[in-house]
Structure formats: structure tokens, C-alpha cells
């Protein structure tokens, strides 16, 4: 018999990334939330119903977790969410003790193989998938790190990565993935042909999960994850990835652009649509101009290119 605890909160969809990161920092072993489903063929172009504005996010924790302390920490975190996203519906919903032998597998039902671009397919490590034609299959085991390809911001980043590798005259050879989480973005770049990918994250759990996922995808020779900060990196990269939030992107804009090689590419997301103009303006001021913007629901992703050296 296995015993666990669950902690459920109400959250608007555009804040799921931030709340997920918070709960994982608190020790969550896995999460599930109401997910927007693709069409029967798995094609993102198929008609799909719009997702609800507010969803319930359930996080699962070890049995010895103090739920009262967790609730207190969550309520203290809400002003941070409001500062980033504005006042909203975020609230504690419920907490439960679970005696069960199979809950740990149930959340996996929400993460299934799906096509997120023209040929990029993201699948969980526990699911078999037969690729067709020129499909590029990305296998992810999230563990206790963030990033499965199911959230809108991650999907938009993956589509931009596919665009850069398929359409750029000179596809990137070196890539920096800032806040790598599961490594999904950097590993996708490696699968598309990048020969040197560095994923950085200050969370040691994420560093290890990303390293394992690189092995699952057979790119551990080209992808490496490190528990380091952006300020400690001095080299330049052909492609820089950052699925963060607008405030962090703006705060780090100068450093992020500095790590991108002249005429290199930047893919940024985790941005509310109403804040995308602010992010574009700050990156333009630092020498990276907008090439294209994608939106999905209330989220936006940006593809930018750094100017040539004078």
C-alpha cells in the first residue's frame, strides 16, 4: 500500500507555468490539470475547443508533507502571481490524503504522444509510438522537472525551433536553453541537428532530469545540462531559448541577447499576449528584433534575430 497527499489549486491557464514551478520547488512528485485535447489525428491544425480560462491543478506530494505549511506557502506566493499576471482567480481548493496503489500512474493519462509541429512529435517515455515519414520524435520523462510539451508556451517554442531548423539558410549548430527544466526545448534542438546544446537550470533536480531525457533521446553526446546561471556563461550561441515569464525575460534581456551570436536566433515564451510588446521593445533595445510572433490562448511566443556586428 502506498500513501501520498494531493494539493489542488485553482489557476488561470496563463499562470500554470509559474504555479507549476512553485509546486515543484515545494517537492511535488507530479501534477495533472485539465488539458486541451488535439483533434483525432493529433494534428494541431484540427479544430479544438477553446480551453477554460480557469482550471484546477493538482499536485501530488510525499506522505510526510505538511499540508498546512504547504497551504501557507502557497498563499504567500499568490502576491507574486498577481504581480506578474494581475489580480486573478488563483486560490487554494483542497488537500487530500491518498491511500492508493495506482495514483502515481493516473497523472500520466494526461500526457500522451502528440504532434506539435509539422513533423515534431512529443511522447512520454512510457508510451510506444510508430513515427511516420520524416517525423522527429522527442521522448520526455518529466520526473520532478517542468516541461512536457503539453502547455501552450512550450508547444509554441517547439514550433519556432522547428521553423528555425527547417527554414533558416544556416541552421543553428550551437544552442543555449535557459531554464531547461526537463530539457525538452534544448533536446528538440539537438534532435533537429544542433551539435552543441547547453541547458542551464538552477534546480539540481531539473539538471538531472534533463540529463536523463537527453539519454532517452540518444543526444547525450550533443546535449549537456548544468546547474549554472546565465551570468556565468561567456560564449555565444547560434540559438538561444527561454520559456520563462515576461518579467524575467525583460530583466535578463541584455544578458540573453549578449549570449546570442550576431545574426543568431532567439525563441522566447512564457509571455502573456498583453506583455509581448513590452518584451519585444526591451529586446529590440538590446539588439534583437522581432521576426515573428505566435499566440495561443492568452500566451505568446516570439522569434527574434540578433543584429549583425557593426
Question: Any descriptors?
Answer:
310 residues, alpha/beta, Alpha-Beta Plaits, Rossmann fold, 2 domains, seven-stranded mixed beta sheet, globular
Polypeptide structure, described:
- The model is unreliable at 36-48 (pLDDT under 50).
- The protein has two domains: 2-109, Alpha-Beta Plaits; 143-306, Vaccinia Virus protein VP39 (Rossmann fold).
- It has helices spanning 16-25, 67-85, 103-106, 152-167, 184-191, 204-216, 246-251, 253-258, 276-285, and strands at residues 2-12, 30-33, 54-62, 91-100, 114-115, 120-124, 136-140, 174-178, 196-200, 223-226, 237-243, 260-272, 288-296, 299-306.
- With 310 residues, it is of the alpha/beta class.
- The N and C termini lie far apart (66 Å).
- The strands form three sheets. Strands 10-9-8-11-12-14-13 form a seven-stranded mixed beta sheet, sandwiched between helices. Strands 2-3-1-4 form a four-stranded antiparallel beta sheet, covered by helices on one side. A three-stranded mixed beta sheet has the order 5-6-7, covered by helices on one side.
- It is 30% helix and 31% strand.
- Strand 9 (196-200), helix 6 and strand 10 form a beta-alpha-beta unit.
- The relative contact order is 0.12.
